[in-house]
Amino acid sequence: xxxYPAVIAALEKGDFYAxxxxxxxxxxxxxxxxxxxxxxxxxxxxxxxxxxxxxxAGEPLTGARFPLLPQDGYVRIEVADEKGxxxxxxxxxxxxxxxxxxxxxx
Length: 106
Description:
Helix content is about 10%, strand content about 45%. It is mainly beta and about 110 residues long.
């Protein structure tokens, strides 16, 4: 819902992302990886506080997976569509937004 109370509640919970056009339809952790799903796009970037990053490019992409490591600190996702428009997530933190136990590696 885009009602004022619903928007404020989502902002307070951190359930939001910013976009100049692209959509992010799903974001979840599965088997130690952060998974993003979206309509067809040309690029998905995962960037961490640890300076580790992954750029997945090609057309069309409808999602990507990023292996989580405990030392990453946080991870942000950026999605770019065929026009170069971008969507950006907030930072997601292991231990706060998902259990550290979901992180693989050491």
